[in-house]
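Changelog note: in this version the structure field was regenerated for every chain. One regenerated record is shown below for reference.
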Amino acid sequence: MNLSWPFRSLRQGGGAKSRLIFALDVASVAEVKKYVALLADEVGLFKVGKQLFLHAGPQVVRQIQDQGGQVFLDLKFHDIPRTMAKAGAEATRLGVRMFNVHASGSLEMMRHTLTEVNKVCRAENLRRPKILAVTVLTSLNKDDLKRTGIVTGVENQVVRLAKLAKEAGMDGVVASPLEIVRIRRECGHNFLLVVPGVRSHGESWDDQKRVLTPEEAMRSGADYLVVGKPIRDAADPRAAARQIAKEIEQGCTPPSGRGVRLFRSGASR
């Protein structure tokens, strides 16, 4: 079981663009082929979510891999522990680099998933994907949480779930930019932070409610940024991806101009 994959290859090259995850929120395989052809050399991973996976099935993951891309499988699994564990094993067999589960599914659910994935990797000599826990969706704010009975506020709930995920052995969490600093403080540097909800200055927030710029998110301690619409809807998606990678690079450079190591210990586990 190779636990260093795939992050060893990222440390050997690729720079800031390796930290950029493009959200393939599209409705057809033709669009997948188009964007992977355009962006395989401009981003680190392609995120496959529910719409695309339900439309095209597991074959879409193989299609991306065949075109030279790698996949973050963003299905946000949330079910009873046994079902979750089996789903995690199948995600592993697909060869994805990352997949995620809902931290609110329970400590047992996350632990059981990790145990099953490790078991499958040992038995079948597979590379283990990074397993991330989803905390609070970036489309939610404190009023949304109150309506579900959570009255402690967004940040407290995010950190509570992040600490639960770390206790369960998850490799990291998906969380909004606004909670990065506190998660990093509470969970340490050996913990991946994959961050959606980033927008460059002047761009529409769309349905995101907790947002920072790419540079701000990186300076706060993010490891990977998930970006979709600003690249997908750009007149030149390649140029848009390169601009965001530039902002990521700026976020990894202190004011003195001296470069900092692009991949923290949390990104190289």
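Spot check on this record: Residues 1-13, 257-269 have pLDDT under 50 and may be disordered. The radius of gyration is 17 Å.
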